């Protein structure tokens, strides 16, 4: 006999939410694992003694955590999803017939809570992971990736010369001056003139097909800014279109792949410039738990002489590949460490003269040969056609570069390169595709940092839930007591 199910929408008095959520459920396990009551003490000074009751701080952070775990970016969609899930309602502490907070309340609360509160929550979860043995601390892998900001390239505005403003210009009913600070809206006049000349030249230059694009719009961080999100920066990732982004920098422990540090940076600067601040935060967090950092793994984007020297001063081995214009050996020249000089193929000495600043702002050492030596040299037409004497420049961090290059060529360096690729890069892929970090809905660098902290926190919590500590079996063996020598048996030996 064929059955037919008939639905009757009726109120059921015999219903307990805790009985409908199985114990193996993710949010049931999270509810039992963590005690969030410390957040009441952390946020107590942020509220007054009178007025209407605010959104519960524990409920607020649980809602944000659910958004990361469910890969939901929008606050409006997050509230709608939570209302349909019994396990999430049980995790939040809401009944089925109880209204959830309004989505705008979540957005306003996120803006008003300081970044330090999100940092303390991340440290609190990190401490739980350290207690479970998920962090070794000795070897860390770092990397960075751009994260799309909540702003479009179509909203870009041209910067004005310093001291000038754009009268009457407004965005979403607000004047530009209220959305973007003066340091973002203006730029030096000479810089704008130089960029305008470059743009005019590129528009008149034909492309590889011979066509000229006179109407092409060339934008850069030097000439344009976003009034929607003034702190977002234009950046380009190889193989992808230009967009307004923030930069997410991560440090991952190579032991169990746990995130040990995360920070938000401006996307228009090199990765190597952010390593000192990243290292400071990472070192502080590890030292709090009595962990020592010994090896730092990174890609070639962090290669910098000052970074090598910084890590060596702190007794940290830098496994960062050397790249760029640096050459470990000057072809045809030999270096003498004792005299700090080079010898050219014609056996002439190039001695150290003084320090200089290179075109990119770095300090270099200048080595120069004597004018008389080069004047009489037979190699002068091919070596230096117009100069008076041969000159060489080497970075002041040449010794640190040499040591990094030797580590890079070693077998251990090749092995640790594969370790870095298999540790931090999969973590980034997971955060971007499964934890809602593909796009930042809040605006501003501080809000971006809060979102990245919550994303890393959710990832670490998942690691903590799935961790199964290894149990070692101990076996005790009882040995017989040794036989002591006696008067009648002085030859007795211990058994």
Helices and strands in order, then pairings?
Blueprint: H1 17-20, H2 26-33, H3 38-42, H4 57-69, H5 75-83, H6 86-92, H7 103-112, H8 115-131, E1 139-148, E2 157-158, E3 160-161, E4 170-171, E5 174-175, H9 176-179, H10 182-185, E6 186-187, H11 189-204, E7 224-225, E8 233-235, E9 243-253, E10 259-266, H12 275-288, E11 295-297, H13 305-313, E12 317-319, E13 334-336, E14 341-343, E15 349-357, E16 363-369, H14 371-375, H15 380-383, E17 391-395, H16 398-409, H17 411-434, H18 445-466
Parallel strand pairs: 1-11, 3-6, 11-12
Antiparallel strand pairs: 1-9, 2-7, 4-5, 8-9, 9-10, 13-14, 14-15, 15-16, 16-17
Structure commentary:
The chain is an alpha+beta fold. The chain folds into 4 domains: 17-113, no CATH class; 136-149 and 244-324 and 404-458, 2-Layer Sandwich (Nucleotidyltransferase, domain 5), CATH 3.30.420.10; 157-164 and 175-225, no CATH class; 334-396, no CATH class. The chain has helices at residues 17-20, 26-33, 38-42, 57-69, 75-83, 86-92, 103-112, 115-131, 176-179, 182-185, 189-204, 275-288, 305-313, 371-375, 380-383, 398-409, 411-434, 445-466, and strands spanning 139-148, 157-158, 160-161, 170-171, 174-175, 186-187, 224-225, 233-235, 243-253, 259-266, 295-297, 317-319, 334-336, 341-343, 349-357, 363-369, 391-395. The strands form 5 sheets. Strands 1, 8, 9, 10, 11 and 12 form a 6-stranded mixed beta sheet that branches. It has a 5-stranded antiparallel beta sheet with strand order 13-14-15-16-17. The chain has a two-stranded antiparallel ribbon with strand order 2-7. It starts with 16 loop residues before the first helix and ends in a 29-residue tail after the last helix.
